Amino acid sequence: MARKTTMRGLLFLIVVLGGVAWIAPVHAREVTIIESPEVTLVAEEGAGKLYQVGEHPVLVMEGTPEEMGYQHGKLLAGKINYIIKEGYMPKALWNRGYSREYVIAQSQRMENFFPQSAKEELRGLTRGVQEAGYEITYEEIRLGITQAEILHFPPDGPPACSNFACWGKWTTDGRLLHGRNLDWNIKGDAQDSHVVLVWRPKGGFPFMMVGWAGGIGSVSGMNSKGITMGEMTLPSPDATFDGLPLFLQMRLTLEKSATLEEAVTFIETCNRTTGWNFILGDGKIPSGRALETDAKYCTVFEPMDAKESERTGHWGMEDMVRRTNHPVGMDQLLRLGIGMGEEFGLTVTSETDIETLLPLLKNEDSWKRYECLSREIEKQPGKVDVREAIQLLATEPVYNNGTLHSMVFDPKNNTLYVANAGNNPPVPATDRPFTRIDLAPWFK
Fold first, then answer.
1. Residues 6+ away with beta carbon under 8 Å from 171
2. Which fold has domain 2-33+155-192+225-443?
3. Structure confidence by residue, pLDDT tens digits, 364-374
């Protein structure tokens, strides 16, 4: 009886924190790619420029942190005012039971870990929006990079995401391709404030992120040195607001890292907050890494890593890394069971308990997406190109009806293929066209 309670309890824990169970056959949807979108210059502010690339606004900022923030605020003032006052922020926070006092307090705790450059950029952004005629505060603007952590605590709950990077034996020419689905909430209007952000910092190298108006960081990005990055929620017993928020962890990794080793080191050594999985790629080598992180621990996985083993229902792959929303390593799985088990009326004390649960865990959505990412790539050595990578993102169970944005990074060619969720009615990103965005002109 005790064993049965343990199994059911950890199963419930993974379902609640790692994604809703969904047993579905492998089924791929048709995908559409727009290879040659129209590019139009919409507006300018100093060295900053706002373009329209097909259906995607692309904001290119240049200069010091304060200058780039001001350009951002002035050129996207209307969108920023909307997301904070009418769109996603009130629907995600105030309309769901988060108090302003609580949110501001947790944001301030995270700001204690901001580098000075981030504060300068936020101040410039605030000034730009205000000079455009909108009444908005620094504290409201700051929500653009702190709300992800806050939304991972009640009354909300964490979303689900999928990432993979493959190269070498799997792709048509050996180059690295990095696919990423952000499965969040397409009923909160975040897609209305979607923008592709490109920074050209004075004295640094260019980088970009797919994000939202008013955010000086995001959850998906690539830099001109060929580094790619995507995240996924990871349930963890070790979480805090006293650290660098996710959006800045990722933005600063891309801003400061010219190599895969530098990117991994930045995540390992920064002050982290809650649980996140990361996929990092480097198109120059090419190679990639998977990271399982939280406030206290950062475990790094290479291709064919021995830690990714059948003991936890996983396996290492040559020339590929992939993650969804659960720990792959035994250490992290055991910590999760021990640290959070009592909350769900279960007892996990040993690796044997985890191994006993595998038949049930393998039926959970996060495990199924991990297996789909793996098996579908294994079917086609030497055949993965951009279309095949996109097709995988649109294949059940990787496909999700709440995908906010979906993309494939092609760092060798400085190219992004991206789809944004539709609205009125909401439509998942992977059911919409993927637009090719040539970043080369802005990555010079």
1. 177, 382, 384, 385
2. Penicillin V Acylase; Chain A (3.60.60)
3. 899 999 999 99
